[in-house]
Amino acid sequence: MSKYTCFEVKVEDNVAHVIMNRPDEFNSMTRLFWKELPELIKELDKNAKARVILLRGEGKHFNAGMDLANFAPATKDGVKKDPARMRETFYHEVLELQDTFSALEECRMPTIASIQGACVGGGIDMVAACDIRYCSADAFFKIAEVDIGLAADVGTLQRLPTLMPIGAVRELSYTGRKFLPEEALALGFMNKVFDNQEDLEKGSLELAKEIASKSPLVTRVIKKQINYARDHSVKESLDYHAAWNSSLISGQDMEAAMKSYMDKSKANYDDLEPTHSFWEKEGLVP
Length: 286
Description:
Blueprint: E1 7-12, E2 15-20, H1 31-47, E3 52-57, H2 83-106, E4 111-115, E5 118-120, H3 122-128, E6 132-136, E7 140-142, H4 156-159, H5 166-175, H6 181-187, E8 192-194, H7 197-212, H8 216-231, H9 234-248, H10 251-263, H11 278-281
Parallel strand pairs: 2-3, 3-4, 4-6, 5-7, 6-8
Antiparallel strand pairs: 1-2
Helix pairs in contact: 1-2, 8-9
């Protein structure tokens, strides 16, 4: 189903493989990258054929962050523009970039980042929006924006404090120093470290298949509840979960799960239903 320039996308056994496919450029993030990623995630979310998304990068490095050359300032046209109005436009551009990685957080299926080599700058923003992070022993991480005169602005500073001790987030963000898998694991940023890339790919796929074997309705509810609980009080989260569970508990899925457990067999679950906008349902979208 791949129709993208910066990614190869395929769905096999209910696992969506989203592969950054510019290894010679270390899968750096061009302008097209930022456009394509939310589009493909939303398409996977909409058609509901996948039950989990496995994100990885081809080549030696997972992701080298933003391609700065690709984001060079446009040539001045000689027209003097109001700085305040230009900053207001930039504000909306940043929100649009933030939405690129929020798509990973907001989609209905769990997301797994499988990381080898470099994961720096925008790469940190991206994997922080995923549900689970695995890496190989050769991986390294760097909140690099401070070294180019920026504060990371598309998710790192907002999501890492929910994953790691805030003191560690402050130190790594203020200094931009490189940190390695052992430290990332100890801080809670990584879920698991593998000896090499081959083991990483195998372990990541095994995890994806294990999640895909569960009821997609249940994993969807779990993801929604965890994200909500992160941002709300325990009392609010309990009430929210009660409303969701009372609405979406599936007797069909519970019966299949119990039978699978008792028989030591694989359960069969229906996929989630595809989502359609009002306009699509009304036949107003070609």
